[in-house]
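Appendix B. One record, verbatim.
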Amino acid sequence: MENTAKTAANTRQCQVEFSGKAGEFFGIWIVNIFLSIITLGIYSAWAKVRTNQYFYGHTRIDGQAFRYLAKPMQILKGRLLALAIFIGFFLLSSASPILAGFVILGFVFLMPLLIVLGMRFKMRMTGYRNVRFDFHGDYADAFITFFLLPILAVISLYLAMPWVLKKMDEYLYDNISFAGNSLTVNTRTASYYAASLLAVASVIAVVIVLGILGAMLFSAGLLAQLSSASFMLTLVIFIGYWLAFALASAIYGAMIRNHIFESCHFENLASFQSNLQVMPFLWLNVTNLLAIIVSLGLAYPWAKIRKAHFLAGVTTVNLSENANQLLDNVQPNTGAFGEEAADLFDIDVSLA
């Protein structure tokens, strides 16, 4: 294949491919919206399956496409369960302030469980070469990582937040397995602090520039003379702040994505590389959002397909020499019993 090259004596580098087309996905997307509306949201479960099947099926590594294995009823049951929990919490919290406190406390203890179940569902419903991924995280670690550690970040006046974000990513990735191989993650705290500091510095720099600009115009008396100038300045400041946070998001997102990919590998199977650059990523996000706004949402399928192409183009997988042999010897875990177990115990508990 043209996108496969030898990178070492025992590995070959494979460019991730995405072959989806905006026109094709637009047809799926518009039908999904229409049927979800007329069924009062019930069809949204089928819509999610169709969407994921399209994106998974058009994403390939070494010529092999991914598969999305979830069934619409699994999604629907999970959403009904999540909705029932939400309504129950709302009714109880509305009954009395005391019950509201217990509801909040119950929600705190429930959220780590939802994270575990959500990740387990997502991984088990993802297949590659007839082998499912899996997730082995437990509730105790999730509670510590996603509840106790954020409290520590607040107590430290957010000085510990980059380290907390690192621990969150480690929990999510370090518990993934595929074909009997656990994903090994060796992230560095320094990389998270560097990304966070650069992101914050970019926002501060833009705020300073906007402050200087406003002060110069105010001292020149332009704002007092023209009400339209005041409106324009307010608009410019709003756009400036938005771009500042978009830049910060692009900086942090690109740096952390690249770091996580280079820090992860499946032993004797695969390692990963990401070459996501900040400014192209910023341009992608800004233009996608503008296109969606200008088109009143109709450009969403184009933006989603465009982003998938972009991210695939900056991602490569280094497959070990014996990867094919390892995968060929793994028994597919999609048998009848596995499917029935998935129907009973694997449900998507998210409302999104």
